[in-house]
Design brief:
With 334 residues, this protein is an alpha/beta fold. Helices cover 45% and strands 15% of the residues. The protein contains 12 helices and 10 strands. Bound molecules: 1,3-dihydroxyacetonephosphate. GO terms for molecular function: fructose-bisphosphate aldolase activity.
């Protein structure tokens, strides 16, 4: 696989006014989302729900790619078309979550490291054959008393770099996601300092592992105060802090940065992205790779009447994609 092909895929993922829909919830995570709206977590319900999302009419107006979970990449629409094939035909690049989740990091209480490197080379080969052209690995950094430690930051950056190098070897664009969680009472300055350290460590590790940044996408968390911090930030403060932090840590050669929503409301996720894109010229496109902030309204609607509300729910997915696509260009009007 040439760097030109990787770079082309990466650029297509962040094409002007387009972003990614993250529908890569593991079976246990989707169980929680389904339980929240009273849907039974069966394989057929998961398949039907992912079909609803992926077959939203004209989704590619604002969506460049979708991140799937292993099970979903092997599933098909009800008329038997594999999802990856359906997506490729409809202008949506298939992506795949390849990490195996977070596990307690021994020796570092309260901290986690993401696992999944063993056997990854072979899994990536299979995912490529199944049609995936980019992959995602999520590292999680917790903020709390005396954490994160440098040890946890480095362990996670190292795993992300090894994953990214394996992806590029297999012809998949790595989406590297070091998520700094919003859980806690910490203030926005703490989030800024932690994220800055995490991104510095990540880009140092990517460099050490010879990862080509031209064929890599960063999935970042925004700079926000902890959910339980009494001093919440306004939209402009989040936008300015996030852009400042990214400018001081992320090389300009990266094709693009997309954000996770991380538990923000739909409206906040869109407003923050829009405000960032109104701050003037940036070295990279800033777009979205939202999970909850793209799906939650549609899931709720669908749960009220699985058959009757199918296309209504798709209308909601399209509306969220449109709002975020406009925000990715700083053109959202609220
Ligand atoms: P949220 O936007 O719901 O945080 O999910 C994005 C994602 O893919 C997290 O890994």
């Amino acid at each position: 696989m040439s760097i030109e092909q990787l770079a082309e895929t990466a650029q297509a993922m962040v094409a002007a006014g387009k972003g990614i829909i993250a529908i890569d919830e593991s079976t246990s995570t989707i169980a929680k989302r389904f339980a929240g709206v009273g849907i039974e977590n069966t394989e057929e319900n998961r398949r039907a729900y992912r079909e609803l999302l992926l077959t939203t009419p004209k989704l590619s107006d604002y969506i460049s790619g979708a991140i799937l979970y292993d099970e979903t990449l092997r599933q098909s629409t009800k008329d038997g078309t594999p999802f990856a094939k359906y997506m490729a035909k409809n202008g949506i690049i298939p992506g795949i979550k390849v990490d195996k989740g977070t596990h307690a990091l021994a020796g570092c209480p309260g901290e986690v490291v993401t696992e999944g490197l063993d056997g990854l080379r072979d899994r990536l080969k299979e995912y490529y054959a199944l049609g995936a052209r980019f992959a995602k690995w999520r590292a999680v950094i917790n903020i709390g008393d005396d954490i994160p430690t440098g040890t946890a930051i480095e362990a996670n950056a190292h795993a992300l770099a090894r994953y990214a190098a394996l992806c590029q070897e297999a012809g998949l664009v790595p989406m590297v996601e070091p998520e700094v969680l919003m859980d806690g009472e910490h203030d926005i300055q703490t989030c800024y300092e932690v994220t800055e350290a995490v991104l510095r460590s990540l880009f140092a590790a990517l460099y050490e592992h010879n990862v080509l940044l031209e064929g890599t996408i960063l999935k970042a968390s925004m700079i926000v105060p902890g959910k339980d911090c009494p001093d919440q930030a306004d939209v402009d403060e989040v936008a300015e802090s996030t852009v400042m932090c990214l400018k001081s840590t992320v090389p300009a050669i990266l094709p693009g940065i997309v954000f996770l929503s991380g538990g923000q409301s739909d409206e906040d996720a869109t407003a923050h992205l829009n405000a960032m894109n109104q701050l003037g010229a940036l070295p990279w496109p800033l777009s979205f790779s939202y999970g909850r902030a793209m799906q939650s309204a549609a899931l709720k609607l669908w749960s009220e009447d699985l058959k009757g509300n199918f296309s209504k729910a798709q209308g909601t997915v399209y509306a969220r994609a449109k709002d975020n696509g406009l925000a990715a260009q700083g053109k959202w009007e609220g």
